[in-house]
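Researcher: Structure for this, please.
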Amino acid sequence: MKLRKMLALSRAVGRNDIENVETLCSEALAADQRDLTALMALADAYWRNQRREDALTVALQALEVEPNEFHALRIVAGVCAERGEHEPAYRYARRLLDSDKPRFTPARAVSRLLAALSWLPVVRRLKELVHRDERETESSYSEGLHWANGYVRWYESRSQTAP
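Model: Predicted structure, token format:
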């Protein structure tokens, strides 16, 4: 994804402008069906806007590209659990617990590229947004692990037979 499109996508995600997120991600995916940034931005936008089935479809595509993508695993496990499909939800929750901590976000990569221009007010504002995004990512990671731990414990305790 080109820098200009990535910046536009970051703005659209930040504003929760799902129509613009869909447009930008569709363009990126038309050029490269395996664009993980576009897939995850789209899956996350659907997830946050309660479009669970759409989020599931896109998250599964992201897992084909990167099998240990933390947020994709969380979305798939969550949708399966909400549907009452506990066996697949458990499998994805276990994978979630074993996955790596998410890497830095696309916005942070953009911020690093623009570090030489940090004297500009717009770039300083971007850095503030990046720091906020990093805090939200850390919080999301912690919440995802907490959810997965609870779900795995619940599933394993209900599947144990009485002595």
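Researcher: Any notable elements?
Model: The chain has a mean pLDDT of 83. The domain at 3-154 is CATH 1.25.40.10 (Serine Threonine Protein Phosphatase 5, Tetratricopeptide repeat).
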